[in-house]
């Protein structure tokens, strides 16, 4: 049995995020593109974690005497320390793969740690649309071998990006897709946050992103758990917090810059949202 994260558990995504943030994955330095020769075969016995993504060819194998592998483009192995097996391929259609070894580090002392299976993806995932993962993986391999300054930082960031996409793909393959922001809703958010002082209307914003007013209103409710109007106020107050702490503008100037003709309305909304008036928020900061 391939014990792994249960995406049906509402807390699973929080635990995954905590793993990737608090126990940072680090490339080991072994990351490559492999074009396997006709006589190639592999008997892995893994000392660390290893990502192994097929982007061409056909192969087969068995992992840990329990998991049968049928390999082709989009086949992904997420091998864990201690895993073993045998993998071969069709010499007429040899495998081409991207690979990267990595470890998780304990932030307290920098030692290698092995997370429990309840926060790890499955060992074998067949990805239906591997284009995004393949592109991110190629950037990771390049970053690992890049000798330029800050390449270690970039490689670690690329690895987190790859792992995040692996989790999303794994969840989707199991019929539990991760919630993602509707692209038209994202466009509407961009319009609002780019100009919080503007008198955005639901009808005008919906038309700008190619939706009906009902569709956009539903997206705000279902994905952001708020209304269009409340999001407008939230975006203004969020900008107000930044202006209070990062500029010398007076509260009246901030209110006017955010489209409030009545600074007292601004102060009431700010206090209702954050529990203190704008002047106290600035003093606290």
Automatic annotation (TrEMBL):
Gene3D superfamilies from the xrefs? Homeodomain-like
Where is each HTH araC/xylS-type domain found? 186-284
Instruction: Supply one GO molecular-function term.
Output: DNA-binding transcription factor activity
Q: Does the keyword Transcription regulation apply?
A: yes
Q: Which domain of life is it from?
A: Bacteria
Return any one Pfam family short name: HTH_18
Q: Does the keyword Transmembrane apply?
A: no
Q: Which UniProt keywords apply?
A: Activator, DNA-binding, Transcription, Transcription regulation
Q: Which InterPro entries match?
A: AraC_XylS_family_regulators (IPR050204), Homeodomain-like_sf (IPR009057), HTH-like (IPR037923), HTH_AraC (IPR018060), HTH_AraC-typ_CS (IPR018062), Tscrpt_reg_AraC-type_HTH (IPR020449)
- Give the PANTHER family listed for this entry: HTH-TYPE TRANSCRIPTIONAL ACTIVATOR RHAS-RELATED
The protein's name: AraC-like DNA-binding protein
To which species is this protein native? Answer: Microlunatus parietis
């Amino acid at each position: 049995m391939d014990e792994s994260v249960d995406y049906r558990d509402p807390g699973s995504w929080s635990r995954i995020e905590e793993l990737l943030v608090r126990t940072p994955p680090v490339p080991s330095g072994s990351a490559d593109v492999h074009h396997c020769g006709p006589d190639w075969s592999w008997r892995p016995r893994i000392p660390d974690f290893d990502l192994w993504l097929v982007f061409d060819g056909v192969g087969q194998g068995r992992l840990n005497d329990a998991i049968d592998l049928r390999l082709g483009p989009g086949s992904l192995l997420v091998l864990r320390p201690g895993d073993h097996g045998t993998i071969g391929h069709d010499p007429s259609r040899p495998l081409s793969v991207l690979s990267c070894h990595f470890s998780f580090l304990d932030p307290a002392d920098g030692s290698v740690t092995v997370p429990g299976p309840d926060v790890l993806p499955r060992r074998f995932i067949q990805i239906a649309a591997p284009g995004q993962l393949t592109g991110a993986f190629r950037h990771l391999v390049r970053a690992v071998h890049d000798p330029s300054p800050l390449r270690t930082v970039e490689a670690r960031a690329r690895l987190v990006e790859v792992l995040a996409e692996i989790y999303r793909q794994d969840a989707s393959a199991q019929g539990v897709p991760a919630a993602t922001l509707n692209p038209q809703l994202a466009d509407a958010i961009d319009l609002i946050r780019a100009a919080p002082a503007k008198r955005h209307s639901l009808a005008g914003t919906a038309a700008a992103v190619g939706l009906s007013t009902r569709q956009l209103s539903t997206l705000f409710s279902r994905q952001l758990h708020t209304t269009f109007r409340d999001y407008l106020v939230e975006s203004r107050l969020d900008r107000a917090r930044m202006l209070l702490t990062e500029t010398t503008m007076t509260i009246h100037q901030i209110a006017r810059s955010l489209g409030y003709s009545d600074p007292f309305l601004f102060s009431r909304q700010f206090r209702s949202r954050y529990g203190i008036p704008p002047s106290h928020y600035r003093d606290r900061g």
